[in-house]
Design a protein that fits this description.
Elements lengths: L2 E7 L3 H15 L3 E3 L8 E6 L6 H15 L7 E5 H7 L1 H6 L5 E3 L7 H11 L3 E3 L4 H9 L9 E5 L1 E2 L10 H4 L4 E2 L2 H13 L4 E5 L7 E4 L2 E4 H9 L6 E5 L8 H9 L6 E3 L7 H6 L6 H14 L4 E3 L1 E4 L6 H14 L5 E4 L16 H25 L4 E10 L4 E5 L5 E5 L8 E9 L3 E6 L12
Helix pairs in contact: 9-10, 10-12, 13-14
The structure holds S-adenosyl-L-homocysteine (SAH), iron/sulfur cluster and FE3-S4 cluster.
The site of S-adenosyl-L-homocysteine has 17 residues, from strand 16.
């Protein structure tokens, strides 16, 4: 009888991608995925360390698993991901219920470590930075999962060391996967039914792979994916403003599959704060990128990430962030109160008062949500292209996304899954567009121009 693994994932898209890869790898040693924790022989928690209380959240989750299995045989308990990397042996000491701790660049060693544990209960912690080995190993593992929209990691790690961020410590140095390895993986995804590829990297636009004296960049990848029949949509995330090079910007002039939506975190609208954060670019350079892309195609929209209450943020710095939002009208953004992370440069700086940060976060979110709602409203009574991803269980309704990643819900038959259909938007709220399927096949003349 095969054993069952239950995987719980926190954090960014890369953790989602990693969890899928881990699950595929575990099949080789006889573990099948389960959605039911109660029936699990192995529990994997894939963790995120980006903001506060990450560690406590992990111990809390482990406590819940312990309770679930109070009167049953204990499953094998594994902590993976960025908290595992940051805390390593500490976790085994603090919580004896944990059996194995494995960092993101050591997943190629997971199966052998589990087998060893099954044999002699050898508790272990593996946190080497072996990115090359990892990808070579994971690349050989077949995946037959059919997903309309698939993540594909092309680059991992970060050398930028923004003063607030743990990622360079948890994911290690920047590594770009071989160009051909990525294209092969994309082809497999397409054969399995993927219509959209979302290229992933902590600094996805820093992708750089050298072979035979040629450098391959993100722009080369996009233009190669463009040629693969079956791929309808291409996206990439997350990019750094400093790496928005002209070759990448110019992809928007020629590519028909690259979506007109750029997620480009700026963090603050104040040059002073950007400097204190070690972001190594100015607000004006960001605005230049924005203007250039709007000039290429004014349907291109931006979203961003903001850190509020960074040490040293004064009222005028915060006002500059608000001004920038009013100027660029991001359609969808994330904002977080600054959280001091262990080991980072900023963690040694004097924090600003929590009430001030909370007040500013409220203001910034009202602003951002306002623009988001306004943009969504602008779709009402218009036709939009929607890539249908799945059926909403028990509702005879379909779920898909428009070009800007908005969720779209409408009635339709599930044989439309995997197709791009036209939907007339009837109602919207902050997060979702609701609409009716347009029956006619080609209504491109009605597209929002
Ligand atoms: N590589 C991306 C961001 C990765 S982390 C970039 O360079 O922009 C995702 C987001 O988490 C960041 O954009 C930032 O807004 C937020 N974040 C990272 N560290 C944080 C911290 N210490 N406190 C609050 N938010 C943080
Ligand atoms: Fe973190 Fe900065 Fe690297 Fe992004 S670029 S992952 S924010 S250190
Ligand atoms: Fe979190 Fe690690 Fe991703 S810290 S955001 S899971 S890179």
């Amino acid at each position: 009888m095969s054993k069952k693994v239950f995987v719980k994932t926190f954090g960014c898209q890369m953790n989602v991608y990693d969890s899928d890869k881990i699950t595929d790898a575990l099949k080789i040693i006889g573990y099948k995925k389960t959605e039911n924790l109660n029936s699990a022989d192995c529990f994997i928690l894939n963790t995120c360390h980006i903001r506060d209380k990450a560690k406590e959240k992990v111990y809390h989750e482990i406590g819940r698993v312990r309770e679930t299995f109070l009167n049953k045989r204990k499953p094998l308990v594994i902590v993976a991901g960025c908290v595992a990397q940051a805390e390593n042996t500490e976790m085994l000491k603090r919580e004896p219920y944990i059996d194995l701790v494995i960092g993101p660049q050591s997943y190629h060693k997971l199966n052998e470590t589990i087998l060893k544990f099954e044999k002699n209960k050898f508790k272990n912690e593996i946190t080497d930075f072996d990115t090359l080995e990892k990808f070579n190993y994971l690349d050989k593992i077949k995946n037959k999962k059919s997903k309309v929209s698939s993540f594909l990691t092309i680059q991992e790690g970060c050398d930028k060391f923004c003063h607030f961020c743990v990622v360079p410590y948890t994911r290690g140095p920047e590594y770009s996967r071989p160009f051909d390895q990525i294209l092969n993986e994309a082809n497999v995804l397409v054969q399995n039914g993927s219509k959209e590829i979302i290229l992933l990297g902590q600094n996805v636009n820093a992708y750089s792979y050298q072979e035979f004296n040629k450098e391959y960049r993100l722009s080369d990848l996009i233009m190669s994916l463009e040629k693969i029949d079956g791929i309808e949509r291409i996206r990439y995330t997350t990019s750094h403003p400093r790496d928005m090079t002209k070759d990448l910007l110019d992809c928007y002039k020629v590519s028909k599959k690259l979506m007109p939506f750029v997620h480009l975190p700026i963090q603050s609208g104040s040059d002073k704060i950007l400097k204190l954060m070690n972001r190594k670019h100015k607000v004006e350079e960001y605005i230049n990128t924005y203007n250039y892309l709007k000039g290429v195609n004014d349907r291109i929209e931006f979203s961003s990430d903001f850190i509020i209450g960074y040490p040293g943020e004064e009222t005028k710095d915060f006002e500059n962030t608000i001004k920038l939002i009013d100027k660029l009208k991001f359609i969808n953004s994330y904002s977080f109160i600054y959280s001091a992370r262990p080991g980072t440069t900023a963690s040694k700086l004097e924090p600003i008062k929590d009430e001030i940060s909370k007040g500013r976060l409220k203001i910034v979110q009202e602003k951002l949500f306002g623009y988001q709602k306004l943009k969504n409203k602008s779709f009402e009574n218009k036709f939009i292209d929607v890539l249908v991803e799945n059926e909403i269980q028990g509702q005879n309704k379909l779920f898909g996304r428009n070009e800007y990643m908005n969720s779209v819900i409408f009635e339709g038959n599930k044989n439309l899954i995997g197709n791009i259909v036209q939907v007339k938007v009837t109602k919207t709220n902050q997060n979702t567009l609701f609409g009716e399927l347009h029956k006619k096949k080609d209504l491109r003349q009605h597209k929002i121009e």
